[in-house]
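Note to self: user wants both folds in one dump. Writing first protein now.
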Amino acid sequence: MEYWLTVWLFALSASITPGPNNIMIMTSGLNFGIKRSMPHLMGIICGFIPMLIILGFGMSSVFLAYPFLHQAIKIIGVFYLLYLAWLIANSATTSLEKDVAKPISFVQAALFQWLNPKAWVMGTGAISAYTTLSDTFYWQVLYIAFVFFVVALPSLFLWLLGGMKMKKYLSKPNHQKVFNVTMALLLVGSILPVISALVVEYF
């Protein structure tokens, strides 16, 4: 149970951390308001969740044929997520300003997920780190997708709803630094059980 609860922590830290989707939906909220930005928000979710499921189901056949790849990807995923956390913690403060002419459509936002590097990191990281080779693999993938759906919706809406205030807060370099370090620590905390399991297994 504790192991599966960390999926929620991972999904939260990954979903709420500043990234392309969050910055874009925040900017859309500032420029066009909540109502006109909702297609953009729903497009993000309806693009990422199917992508996550397709990615998981596709990887399952490879894992079943070559079990060692699952462990290899899990180890690589852990190191990559630690690297991602380091990048988040040490990322330079930047301006959150973006010029947009009109709201991004539902279809545009959904298709963007397949080009969003953070979405790929989140998807492959979650599947490689939080699945085990068993008869319930597909259910594990669906559970991860469900968790991301539940967490992503309020996380994105928070960026949309609080756009102006959050922009003002994060525009201050010291505040942005504290936020980045906090999110990085949450990301590391979310994979500690995976690291512990790997240490026990190999050492």
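First done. Writing the second protein, which came from a different request thread.
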Amino acid sequence: MTQLASTACAPTTLPPVLLLLDAGDDHALHRAALHRGDPSAGCITADPTPHTNSLAYLALDLLRAMGRDSFTRPDAERMSTDAAWRAVTCWTLTTRLQHAIVLRAHRLTSERLARLAAWRAETGIRLTLVAHTPTEATEYRLRARLAAAGLADLHTASGTLAVLDALGPPGTNRLHSPPPPDHIPALPDLPEADAASFLQECRHHLNKDDFARTDSQYRAGHAAARTWLARHPRFTPAATATVRPPDEDTGPHEPTDWQDMESLRLFLSRLTVSSPSPGHTLARIRGAQAHFLDRQLHLEVPDDLAARGGPGITTVPITPHVAHTLTTNLPNPLRAAAAAALLFTGTDQALLSMTQITSLDEHATRLAIDRDSRIYIGMPPGPRHMYAIPARARPLLAAALAFRRRTPLTADHFGLFAGCFGTSIRFDHLIRDAGLDIPAVTHPHPAEDWHTAARCRHVDAPVPAAPASSARARSRLPTTRRPL
């Protein structure tokens, strides 16, 4: 799940409901419908739980067909009927789900069919119902229930060959085959040199292979800074330099502070959010600082990175394996988004609990946390904590946003993750049961996240480079993490 699907409203013209009539209750047709389901290709097959007419069970059956079946554990969190159906709707809108096949449609009550009709109307999903109708009377009663539920626009197929042709070819069924575990090549302890001498010190202290890996991260940070500064021309030296009259130009100008710190901190978050270890983060930061120096910009970051939290220090990259873990083990969109936010922000749960619904942009690309607005009510807002959202986590955040906006009596200033971090022990149990290793939970850091403490100034004269012989001792930054 690497792309964020559109969350637009369902089209005004819905495709007709495909009603497949199986008069002989052929097991081959049932098996073919199950094999047709392939969530990765946008199609699911739901087999409703027998001997119950519960609306909540039908929603959970649809979630199970999507692969989100962790609620089957005895100690799993329970969702109410309305919450379960909101989850079904939100996951449908924020993933590539386009087609749903529902088996045993002849056993569905009018209330359950009405829920399916509402789901179809809100999402525009293409609905296929497979029903066992051995007699004309049973078929008539089924059609009457469908019409009463608002599913009167039917396209019917009957007979084994016609039903198999309507179902189409089987899917790949890759949902339950998770990607392989992540393998992170470790970096050695890196020199604690500044940006001007970092690469030279690495070349001096590291062997050829370790230097090549470090240099690739350094160059990635350098290239990212070059691209980002090119897209912000108003912050070039020519635009930020202080103009003085000739008679007052007697020496170097005073440094000019960077104005748009939120944009800069968002860049630093985006640069390091995919970093697999603090060592990789340090190399990327030094590369970015080097290009800033070339532009007469002094980018300062805290020296004690290991003691702080934030992107690249207490975060975990949202790899395919991590995304699969989140989407399959946390069926509640709010819980899945909260766990993903802990992974890609690396910040404290108390800070994430201040996240408002308006803190998330409409495309789920960035998260802004305004701490002052929640603590000092009525005071002018201070600098916000900006975090970049990785592409694989955006569908999760978009689903949580849609879930909140569909919750009754909800306003934009309400908490996005309300109820997730308040009962921290319960939430910690959920993420542990999901098999997630979140460094921010086991690495408490009372100080600000490192990128929110960053500073940048423009200076008229180039910042002098540190001599190569003045490099300090090797840092003790941990460079590897326990794999998920």
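Dump finished. Worth passing along: DSSP finds 18 helices and ten strands in the chain.
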